[in-house]
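Please, structure for the following, as tokens.
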Amino acid sequence: MQRFQARFVLGIFLLSCLSFFLGCSKPVDNAIGVLSPEETRAIAREAYIYGFPVVTNYRMLYKQAVDKSGPDYRAPFNTIASAANVATPDDKFVVTPNSDTPYSFLWMDLRAEPVIVTMPRIERNRYYAGQMVDLYTFNFAYLGTRSYGNEGGNFMIAGPGWKGKTPKGIKAVLQCETEFAYLLFRTQLFNPADLDNVKRIQAGYKAQPLNQYLKQPAPAAAAAVDWPKPSADILSSPALFPYLNFMLQFCPTNPSEKDLMERFAKLNIGAGKTFDFAKLSPASQKAVTDGIADAGTELDGLMKRIHADEVSSSEMFGTREFLKNNYLYRYAAAKLGLYGNSVDEAIYLPYFVDANHQPLDASKASYTMVFPKGQLPPARAFWSVTMYDGKTQFLVANRLNRYLLNSTMQRSFTYGADGSLTLYLQKNSPGADKESNWLPAPDGPFYAILRICEPAPEAVKRIWKRPQLQPTH
């Protein structure tokens, strides 16, 4: 009996010591174990950077394929919808939209069976593309001019679990690592009078489930999904994590992310897990919000490198293999221009600061962009310079209804005596004799994007140098 009491007292003493040391380290709560505030903060930072693109993508999926009463609704899953015109300031479906190519949209549910997508045959001198994006926002494959030419054909888009045979008449099978995917079509528009031709091409884009293509009975339908409505703070707060958990159920864990998912699970982040911020202790909550703030700081550091031309868009969009799981680049890409193209398809050269490294603001200065003779952007398809409002990230309304200057306008531009081309980015007209080269800016902060579609090697290898924006007053 005395031996038992001695052991009991010793046990109480050890537990007291353990409690004291744990109390000194101020542990935070989670369902699996005990995390220090530092580890909680680090996991929250990493998970936010990882999850921001996924949840941004979900918000777009919900708007375009689920919320039938919303202004951005396009069509149900596995059905193509097309925009009749290029993007205007009224379009708010995605930040930093291009206004060169009318869009067509297809959200694919690949759980029950593959989807067959048909690209029509088009003329050789027109560019079109089908960009395929998985739930992570990786560009996993392309259809269209660069990838398969303008001859058209039938393509099978399959989910991660598909192991069936390739049917006859299929030009290629393209497999996605997630169970839902987005296909964003772009069709080049030469000028306003060309719009009917673009509409005819858009009418030739087709999507059908495999069973319809084979004229066979449909397989068992996939389970219905209860899509949660995005909250107002879905991207700016810990509310992001429950949506990330929801999306990850459709994303089989990639082998390269097994350890990452195990680390996230310590904070109840992962497929099938429940992250409830309200139930965390104050210490936990502060650690999580501090981690999210750290993610913003990390993005700010990357933005400085982008402004200094040390990092370009060509490094931030692409396949998983291309990005090598660089989640910060993927985060920045989703933040700055969701659904940007991979480098072989297009290059995006951003203008956030002028030649003096000052933020662009048309209320304080006017700006010129000068291309010396023979130094226009090297594009196999086309190039364009598009204006965006710095506050909203959308196109800028103006009396000319002009949102970009591009290579299809080259004959209408006014050139210098030496053959150079000067573009004017400013809020007021540079004068009637220069208005053909004017890209109207808002009365305040703005940024511009120089797009090079199907860039030539000198652009990809950064041999060709973009001109800087020179401020004038």
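Residues 250 and 338 are 20 Å apart (CA to CA). The domain at 68-214 is CATH 2.60.40.1610 (Immunoglobulin-like).
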